[in-house]
Amino acid sequence: MALLHSHLLHPTLELLHNHSFRVSCLSQSQTTIKSKTVERLKTEYKPNVLDNLFLDSFRNKMVQEAGWDSEKSGYDGLIEVANRLMIGRSNSETTEAAVRILRSLFPPLLLELYKLLIAPIAGGKVAALMVARVTALSCQWLMGPCTVNSVDLPGGSSLMTGVFVERCKYLEESKCVGICINTCKLPTQTFMKDGMGVPLLMEPNFSDYSCQFKFGVLPPLPEDDITLKEPCLEICPNSIRRKQVTNNTDASKCPKA
């Protein structure tokens, strides 16, 4: 998020002669700017009753797969269960477990019918358009505010088959690149392609926590996917502990990714 230029905080030259007014003006301006910045950072989607049902259902499926549940309620508990899902599993095993969770949320017949009847229409464009809109409407409880946008498709055309997540709540709350990649990005890409016949590329931005979904676009091979080579987030508590123990900046590399 771009910072406001410092000259916007300065009063006019005439006011500089009045020290008390200058201090008051600066204080009020800085407070206003700070409050607006915090407000932008804290923009959140307000869940409704249906969203809470989605969260409970998703968490219950995750608990069944992890074999453990958190004592915390709501979203905080969901994040702890997601973290537990990775314990004792390799990255690929975690991804496979997350794919099973996603599949369990849908009636098997529905997935098969969508893949068979909808996915082939217009070279997959209709299915990608539909999934993008459903994702933007139904998944904000998990990711936060998001909008449908245009993405470039193979062949040079562009279509409104993208979903842009302004600031992913799942990534921000988990504070972990590995959890993002292995319980969200990779399994969702796999589930959409294999389960619904819709290619998907997810591009999380680990600097500002945004994420771009590109339905209708195949993801790159693992060795070419730069998101799989990301270091730990600065806010990751495990990264901080590793740095303190090893006194080595190389310890910032995320071992879970």
TrEMBL record:
InterPro entries cross-referenced by the UniProt entry: D27-like, D27-like_C
Isomerase among keywords: yes
Superkingdom to which the source organism belongs: Eukaryota
Segment forming the signal sequence: none
Keywords: Isomerase
Pfam family, one: D27-like_C
Gene Ontology terms for molecular function: iron ion binding; isomerase activity
Segments forming domain Beta-carotene isomerase D27-like C-terminal: 141-222
Keyword tRNA-binding: no
Protein name: Beta-carotene isomerase D27, chloroplastic
Species whose genome carries this gene: Heracleum sosnowskyi
